[in-house]
Amino acid sequence: MSLSYEERKKTILELLEENGKVVVRKVEKLLNVSGETVRRDLERLEKEGFLKKVYGGAVKNRVTFELPFDQKTMLNAKEKSAICKKAAELVEDSDVIFIGHGTTVLELVRFLNNKKNVTIITPSLPVLLLANEHFEGKIIFLGGEFERDQKFTSGPLEEMALRHLKANKAFFSAGGISIEDGISDYDLSGARSSRTMMERSNEVIVLADSAKFNLTTLANIGKLSEVSIIITDKNCSDQMKMKLLEQNVELIVSDEME
């Protein structure tokens, strides 16, 4: 019986995670499939952002650029929504929460309707607009220099405001999550914003679809040891789950959404 793409993908990503690279010939033998099938899988995984193809195989991806916000909203949309639904379960009545920038955390707002006396603090314009439509609690919008492509405020004014605030929980996404390099973002301003939220909250909760694992982007946010919880989708590999456990990071896997 032939393996499905998802089954092959799981094995390929586990090999990549363990060795930092995969070789087409080795994958052929391991999965008992043709080289053409492996190369097609690698091409698809590259498009999904999991790896970078090289001669004879593929290596871990290292990303230094970010798509504009509007282009990212449709990427892994079901996974992001499921992640946010699970994240909302961690929000308690009367909580003060930071919600960072990015498309992954945006949907969290939609799942907070049943919470009482919650305060949202955010630098994200899309979060502000969505909260204005779907959220009945208090909203604090952080001022600063507006990043047009990613639609959030940053800089000294935003950081100064954050330094004068304190939250029970910080929810933010990341450009990449790596065992070696920790949590990272695509630009310095975004990383600094998330970093300040980490320092001004009691719990740090990172929302990231599984495509973000084994990626290191331009700017470091913090170490994995500084993260309380990571919430991701069901495609997170067993290898990554074990490594996060070794780092004492609680991992929550979201339910699949139709």
Helix and strand layout, with pairings?
Layout lengths: L4 H15 L1 E3 H8 L3 H13 L3 E4 L2 E4 L8 H4 L4 H12 L7 E4 L3 H4 L12 E4 L2 H10 L3 E4 L3 E3 L4 E3 L1 H8 L3 E6 L3 E3 L3 E4 L2 H12 L1 E7 L11 E4 L6 E4 L5 H9 L3 E4 L5
Parallel strand pairs: 4-5, 4-9, 5-6, 9-12, 12-14, 14-15
Antiparallel strand pairs: 1-3, 2-3, 7-8, 10-11, 11-13
Helix pairs in contact: 2-3, 8-9
**CATH fold group of the largest domain:** Rossmann fold
How many structurally independent domains?
2
State the strand order across the main sheet: 6-5-4-9-12-14-15
Class from helix and strand fractions: alpha/beta
Mean pLDDT rating: 90
Q: What is the percent of helical residues? A: 25-40%
Gap from first CA to last CA = 27 Å
Task: Please explain how this structure is put together.
The protein has 258 residues and is of the alpha/beta class. The chain has two domains: 5-60, Arc Repressor Mutant, subunit A (Orthogonal Bundle); 69-253, Rossmann fold, CATH 3.40.50. The protein contains ten helices and 15 strands. The strands form four sheets. The protein has a seven-stranded parallel sheet, sandwiched between helices. A three-stranded antiparallel sheet has the order 1-3-2. A hairpin with a 3-residue loop joins strand 10 and strand 11 (182-185).
What key phrases describe this protein's structure?
258 residues; alpha/beta; Arc Repressor Mutant, subunit A; 7-stranded parallel sheet; 10 helices; 15 strands; DNA binding; NagB/RpiA_transferase-like; WH-like_DNA-bd_sf; transcription regulation; transcription
